[in-house]
Amino acid sequence: MSLIPGTLVLVDGVGILLRGPAGSGKSDTALALIHAGHQLVADDAVDIRRLNDRLVGGAPAAGEGLLCLRGPGLIDVAACFGAGALARSATVDRVVDLVDEPLPATTDADWQPIRIHGVSCSRMALSPGRPLPALLEVLAAGGRTSLARPEPLACG
User: What are the chain's domains?
Assistant: First the structure.
């Protein structure tokens, strides 16, 4: 098990690991997703372990159930949104890196393969200035994404 900086959310059953520098919007994005009915697994740091050919993440004991927001500070997610807003663990199905740099326009999905603990994952870079909660819902709705050339995402 290792600790990875980031936020892990469960969006319609798809585990999405958000990574990026401090202040890039990981926790704010998680808050918007929780408000939309999705679940927080871990914020600021994610305990990642390899389970066969999958990665599974959870919150470190000290941060379990907490969301750290700039300004308001630590938020008890269960107290604010109910116990259903939390998940104890989730597989890491997608990795989204929040990068504050221009990305080229393309009609193809920009998934790139990366390896974490020897497990291949689909990774995409997105700008924090975009509507991240809605984009993550669309990415989750697309199901498992091939690392080669994925088909267009079908929503609904």
Answer: 2-141 (3.40.50.300)
Give the CA distances from residue 83 to residues 13, 22, 31, 65, 107, in Å, rounded to whole numbers and listed in that order: 16, 27, 15, 9, 39
Q: Token match 């808050």: residue?
A: 31
* Nearest alpha carbon to residue 141 among 25, 62, 21, 36: 36
Under 8 Å between Cβ of 137 and 71: no
66-109 pLDDT per residue, tens: 999 999 989 999 999 999 999 999 999 999 999 887 665 654 56
By three-state DSSP, how is residue 148 classified?
coil
Q: What is the DSSP string of 42-53?
A: ESSEEEEEEETT
pLDDT at 54: 93
- Give me the chain's average pLDDT, please: 86
Residues 6 or more apart whose Cβ sits within 8 Å of residue 152: 109
Dihedrals phi, psi of 25, to nearest 5 degrees: 110, 10
